Structure formats: C-alpha cells, structure tokens
Amino acid sequence: MGKRDESDEAYVVDLCNEVLGETALTQHKFDWLLGDPGAGGRQARLPVDAYWSGHQLVVEYRELQHDQPMPHFDKPDRLTISGVHRGEQRALYDARRDTEIPAHGLRLVVIRPTDLDADTRGRLRRNREADIAALSKILARDNDEDRVTDAFRTWLLTKDWAPVTPTDRWTDIEAVRGSQRLICEAKGRTGEKGIDADIAYGQLLRRMTSESPDIRYALVVPSSSVKAVERVPLHVRRLLRIDVYEVSDDNHVRQLPS
Question: Residue 32's domain spans which residues?
C-alpha cells in the first residue's frame, strides 16, 4: 500500500464513497483543466482529488499547506513553470479549479481538516462516526430538488445505468444502459404540486425529439408529489413512454407501476 493510500486524503475520499454510494475516480484529469505552459508550450492536465461521475461532483481535500505558508511544502527558493514558487503555484491552480470546475457544469466541494475531527496540526484523528456525519452534511445539496436528483442518480448506478452528460442542457439527468437511454426531469418538494407536475410533463414533452423505442422518459418526484403526478392517467404515460419514480424522505427510490 502506497503513502497516498494511507493519507488523510484517501481516508476522506473513502468516507465520501460511503456517503455517496459511488466509488470515486481519484486523481482524475479533465481535458479542460490545464496547468501553465511548460517548456515547448505544453500544458499538463491538472488532477482533481476525486470525481464522482454519477453525481457530477468533484471533491478537493485541501490540507493546511493550501491555506497558509509552509516552507517545507512551498520551497520558496525554487521557481516553477509558472514563474512562482510551489506555494504560489498551488494557490493559482486551486483558484483555477475553483473557477473551471463549476464553469464546466460540475459541482465542486472543498473539504479542509477543520471541517472534520482534526488536531491543531491539521492531521485527522480518523473518528469515523463523527467524520461521516460531518461529510454527510457537507455533501448534502442546497435544496430538495438537488436531494431528489442525487438520490435518483445513486439509485441508477445500482441498476447498472450510467449517467451521462445530457443531450439537452436543460435535462436534469440522462443515463444509458446498453442500447437504452433514459431522459429524466426531477422535482423537489413544492407548495404548488399540481402546477409543478404539469410543468414537468411539459418539459418532458419538449424533449421527445426521437421516435426510438430505446428512449424512455422519467419524472422523478418526492413522495409528497406522487398524487399530483398520477393525475395523468397510466395509459397516457405508457403511450408517451414516461415512467414515474418516487423518492421518499429518506432517499429510497421506487418506480410507480407502469
């Protein structure tokens, strides 16, 4: 086992895997996240600590050297290809990640030792129960539609669906499994359940640009909206290839009869 496998970063990523129900791609590199030009103008791709494609989520675990000067890490007497020492380059590249990752439609969560059970030197005590509780809150989304969307993405992964970048930028979730494709509209808790259900059906109708029988459509809603969604009769939903999925308050997913 290498040093990275034993690091606090690896420990945090493993706990995030448990919270999210998906295994991260670690040290993942995107074609659009690049460092400064080196000799000959070549730009290396910058890695991210962890990427969960099913959740469209990137996590960066930033230890103390990311936020305060540390000569041991910064090596101020050596200049990098950016023309600055390692500490300044690290700050530049962190800022680039902070800008580019959200700009490319991914959610970025930055986690620091102080967010978890750590000592004054920033080393994690590895209090698993407390750290999982903290990470569950940190990784939680800001509104109920995000909660419903994340729960459904996680469920899709357990059913061998692979979430992909939507063909239509307004689609909440799109996933493939073999020759099948699923195009989904998700809604969260709302005070206007009937109106929001009607809007969601209309949004799906606008995306029905293909006659392929391999494409199905999904309306994903919290338990509180199921009755409103069921106002469209089952035989109509069958004709339109629309499936309805319920996400309970504790994030369990079930498909309504179709």
Answer: 4-139
Residues 131 and 149 placed together within one structural domain of the fold: no
**pLDDT of amino acid 74:** 43
Higher-scoring residue by pLDDT: 191, 118: 118
**Collapsed DSSP state (helix, strand, coil) of residue 234:** helix
Instruction: Reply yes or no on whether the pLDDT at 87 is more than 80.
Output: no
Q: How many CA atoms lie within 13 A of 238 on its CB side?
A: 5
Residue 20: CATH number of its domain: 3.40.960
Q: What is the mean pLDDT of the chain?
A: 87
* Residue 163 sits in the same domain as residue 218: yes
Check: CB of residue 96 under 8 Å from CB of residue 46: yes
3-state secondary structure of 139: helix
Is residue 164's pLDDT more than 50? yes
203 in the same domain as 90: no
Last residue of a domain, one of 139, 158, 182: 139
Taking CA atoms, 178 is separated from 86, 89, 157, 159, 201, in Å, by 45, 43, 13, 12, 26
More confident residue, 72 or 139: 139
- Of 139, 163, 183, which residue is a domain's last? 139
Average pLDDT over residues 15-26: 93
Looking at residue 125, what DSSP letter applies?
Answer: -
How many domains does the chain contain in total? 2
Tokens, residue 164? 């992909």
* Cβ–Cβ under 8 Å, residues 173 and 166: yes
